[in-house]
Design goal:
This protein is 22% helix and 29% strand. The longest helix has 18 residues. It has 6 helices and 16 strands. The chain is an alpha+beta fold. The N and C termini lie far apart (57 Å).
Length: 314
């Protein structure tokens, strides 16, 4: 009987080992990458930035862990996603989108995947001391992976948000993508596509036969990152602010514009339908970082290529 139990135990351990690895080369299977959990943006004037992001999101931007110096300004969306605004280097000329976090269902499985692909990473604390994995992608962008429940449990924060006093007229509902300047698409594809399992959601350009933007969607959700290609090496601060950006989904772009005006927004751009067939409106924070309001679904056929994945929802 003991030998039978031992044999059963060995078979079960082997089955677990097979589940934890792929069939080719013993590479660990991917954890589920569910979407964007957090975006961190660097600013030079925290007071002005807090006012801008309060107006842009129609939410009161709160201060968490205010005993730190300087404290971050934090917006928590109804989705549980966070937008962190932190004081940064005034002389910075590159991306002010300083960190992007993704929600995963299994951090240990992610670590095994990174180790198998010889990708360096570090374990670090995230929100409220919870574990996370941090690394640099091939373009040097800071990327963090956090447990998936963080995105749906804003109460883990050290301080509760003050209820917004603004009218609930087409409030932005979630972060749907973030964009970065990309010089080496092949290297980025090897990391995001081949290792992590992202896939092309849509791609296009200013002209039909050019590819200036590649939207890489997470494998287990609807959020995406956007490769911003063909950006001149000598691009100025404003251009880099346009390229390195964050996008917030809204149900109705025109209602969102009217709410912005009520909030005191003084921008001059008007809503337009992008090459991807979606309504959008560009805002710029005091440091010229672009915040793109975008409707969740297209209203017309996109240029250049078809969509290959599900669209985000409010």
């Amino acid at each position: 009987m003991n030998k039978i139990l031992a044999l059963v135990g060995a078979i079960m351990m082997l089955a677990v080992a097979l589940v934890m690895t792929c069939w080719s080369g013993g590479v660990p299977v991917r954890p589920k990458i569910l979407g964007i959990s957090q975006v961190r943006i660097s600013v030079t004037n925290l007071t002005a930035a807090r006012q801008f992001y309060s107006d842009a999101t129609s939410m009161d931007i709160t201060c968490h862990w205010c005993e730190t110096s300087p404290p971050p300004a934090v917006a928590v969306f109804p989705s549980g996603q966070r937008l962190d605004v932190v004081l940064g280097d005034p002389a910075a000329h590159s991306s002010r989108v300083t960190e992007l976090a993704f929600a995963v269902d299994d951090l240990k499985l992610l670590e095994q995947l990174l180790q198998a692909n010889k990708i360096p990473f570090q374990e670090a604390e995230s929100i409220a001391g919870l574990p996370s994995v941090v690394l640099k992608d091939p373009e040097g962008n800071a990327v963090r992976f956090v447990p998936s429940f963080i995105t749906v449990r804003p109460k883990v924060l050290g301080k509760q948000e003050k209820p917004s006093t603004r009218p609930d007229a087409s409030l932005p509902r979630r972060i749907i993508h973030a964009g970065f300047v990309v010089r080496d698409r092949a290297a980025m594809d090897k990391f995001y596509k081949d290792v992590l399992g992202f896939h092309v959601y849509w791609s296009g350009g200013m002209k039909d036969r050019e590819t200036d933007w590649v939207d890489m969607q997470v494998p287990d959700g609807t959020d995406w990152i956007e490769y911003m290609l063909n950006v001149p090496v000598e691009a100025d601060k404003h251009t880099l602010g346009v390229m390195n950006h964050v996008a917030i989904g809204v149900p109705d772009i025109h209602a969102a514009q009217q709410q912005l005006i009520k909030n005191g927004w003084k921008g001059t751009e008007q809503p337009k339908i992008g090459r991807d067939g979606k309504w959008q409106l560009n805002l710029y924070d005091p440091d010229d970082t672009r915040v793109e309001l975008m409707e969740f679904t297209p209203v017309e056929k996109p240029c250049c290529s078809e969509y290959t994945g599900p669209h985000p929802k409010p």
